[in-house]
Write a structure and sequence with these properties.
Elements: H1 10-16, E1 17-26, E2 29-36, E3 41-49, E4 55-58, E5 61-64, H2 65-72, E6 84-89, E7 93-99, H3 107-113, H4 120-126
Antiparallel strand pairs: 1-2, 2-3, 3-7, 4-5, 6-7
């Protein structure tokens, strides 16, 4: 179950997860493959520099916007393509730990291979 509060220690992250190869980079951070040490569950680990970390208030706490969105998508009545498993609000960066289905690929790569667009039925299946 996802925690509603962040962990604030890099050593807690390092004790719990192993980070592997870079999956991708974008304007809001880098995403790495990894796994949870306890059960070898494949995860995606997203690093967001603090200067790119947008925040807003929720229930009297200032939280990263991306965390708020992911927490809302974790509810029973809502289904997200991937779920937020854990998060770490560190001094220099925010680390999000997300599910990583295997095999998987990013949408851009999928579109390149499949002619640049998706049929409605394929969109419904992927969501």
């Amino acid at each position: 179950k996802i925690q509603n509060q962040s962990n604030q220690s890099p050593s807690l992250f390092e004790d719990k997860y192993t980070e592997q190869n870079l999956l991708g980079e974008g304007g809001y951070g880098s995403v790495f493959a990894g796994y949870r040490k306890a059960d070898h569950l494949p995860v995606a680990i997203k690093h967001i520099p603090k200067d790119d970390d947008l925040r807003t208030e929720l229930n009297g706490k200032e939280l990263p916007v991306e965390v708020i969105i992911m927490l809302k998508l974790t509810g029973e009545s809502v289904r997200a393509p991937v779920s937020l498993l854990d998060w770490y609000d560190l001094d220099q960066e925010l680390i999000l730990v997300l599910e990583r289905p295997v095999p998987s690929e990013d949408l851009y790569s999928y579109l390149e291979v499949n002619g640049g667009s998706l049929e409605e039925e394929k969109v419904k299946v992927s969501c």
